[in-house]
Amino acid sequence: MSGEQTVRIDRTPGANPPPAPAAWPGAAQPGRPPLSIVVAGGGTAGHVEPALALADAVRRMRPDARVTALGTERGLENRLVPARGYPLELIPPVPMPRKASPELLKLPLKVRESVRQTRDVLDRVGADVVVGFGGYVSLPAYLAARGRVPIVVHEANARAGLANKVGARFAERVLAATPDSGLAGARTIGIPLRESITSLDRFALRAQARAFFGLHPHAPTVLVFGGSQGARTLNTAFSGAAEALGRAGIGVLHAHGPKNTLAVQQVPGAPGYAAVPYLERMDLAYAAADLVVCRSGAMTVAEVSAVGLPAIFVPLPHGNGEQALNAQPVVSAGGARLVPDDQMTPQRVIDEVLPLALDVQRLQAMSTATLSSGHREADRVLAQIVLEVAGR
Question: What is the mean pLDDT of the chain?
């Protein structure tokens, strides 16, 4: 099922810490234009969210800095970027055909026009640095900035996309979420995440989180979610195992997708099975859970690792296998297990998920291992690198 890599989420940001001291190197000086950073990461939440996490970190370090986002008319950035208080400049997208087609012949003209418009944006905002995260707007951003504005590339996926492979050839710095991304010389820093996730104390918020979703305050609880439209495999597996989970005393919080319905057999007196179309408060969802069963998109893996939540990853069975690669560092560290999509059945939930949810000691060990593989500081690390490259 396509389109399953992200969950439709509107996360509420955490409180920002006090701004960095005015003595930060390169702080704005009288008569000098403010620092101008352009981020290119439009299209999907997996591209937009890291760009906005970087923007937030820059704003904390340099309150005088101006961050402008590049996007397209149809991307999620049209909703996410203005909501976070950043200006958005729209440019023509440059989708790369995956095979020979008539669209491939039109590509040079599309690239040329998109680069021209992007260059106009860079000139207008006085860009000091361009930071690309892949996706439809990154390629024209890299080409427009080449030889004019320093470039920083960040790759979130385990396998780099074409846009970032191009940008990395003439970037000042190249960063990646995981080792072996395919970008030569890339420094592994993780994925920039918003502060409401990186500062999350799951245990301090647990009572509030479970009350918010109507969950049992003390029962072992499993969080289940797929992509923006839900994951059919997870919906089928957990609805089929709902009665067994209830009889074992396990609560479930399950985001099944807005276009789907979920019928579950509730057991009288058992912890509740809370089925919701999507999760509006992902921070509280993580805080409510002892274990998560989910897809393994790059952002999901990064967030689960950052909050220290034991996981069973069920990679999306399509594409180039990158979801399984995204999960591998956490699995290798002992913080997660990997179950192929075609093996995640109701019986697999009963045989593996159920006993794990009841094994407190094992979950504690997995949580420690998951945290060790996470990168809570990636937003700050990337922000400092960007400021250094900008020379400001």
Answer: 87
Cβ atoms of 129 and 55 within 8 Å: the answer is no
Total H helices, total E strands in the chain: 15, 13
Q: Confidence class of residue 44 from pLDDT cuts 50, 70 and 90?
A: confident
Indicate the pLDDT class of residue 265, thresholds 50, 70 and 90. confident
In angstroms, rounded to a whole number, what is the distance separating the alpha carbons of residues 73 and 259?
24
- The helix, strand and coil proportions of the chain, stated in percent and rounded to the nearest 5, come to 45, 15, 45
Q: What is the pLDDT of residue 107?
A: 60
The two three-digit tokens of residue 60, written as one number: 């904390």
Q: What contacts 165, CB < 8 A, 6 or more positions away?
A: 182, 183
Calculate helix-pair angle for 45-61, 298-307, nearest 10 degrees: 50
Q: Identify whether residues 241 and 344 lie together within a single domain.
A: yes
Say if residue 106 is in the same domain as residue 145: yes
- Give this prediction's pTM: 0.82
**H-state helical runs in the chain:** 45-61, 77-83, 102-125, 138-145, 162-168, 195-198, 202-213, 232-247, 282-288, 298-307, 322-333, 346-348, 354-358, 360-373, 378-390
Which CATH number characterizes residue 162's domain? Answer: 3.40.50.2000
Q: Under 8 Å CB-to-CB from 135, ≥6 apart: which residues?
A: 40, 41, 42, 43, 44, 47, 75, 161, 163
Tell me the residue range of the domain where 381 lies. 36-193+376-390
DSSP symbol at 43: S
Please state, in angstroms and rounded to a whole number, the distance separating the CA atoms of residues 69 and 81: 7
Q: What is the DSSP letter of 20?
A: P
Is-contact 139 167, C-beta < 8 A?
yes
Token reading at 99: 């095979």
| 284, amino acid identity | L
In angstroms, what is the C-alpha Rg of the chain? 22
Q: Does residue 122 belong to any structural domain of this protein?
A: yes
Instruction: Say if residue 78's pLDDT is above 80.
Output: yes
Tokens of 371: 């945290």
Q: Concatenated DSSP letters for 70-131?
A: EE-TTSTHHHHHHHTT--EEE----PPPSS--HHHHHHHHHHHHHHHHHHHHHHHHT-SEEE
pLDDT of 26: 46
Give CA 274 to chain center in angstroms.
24
Clarify whether residues 265 and 186 are in a common domain: no
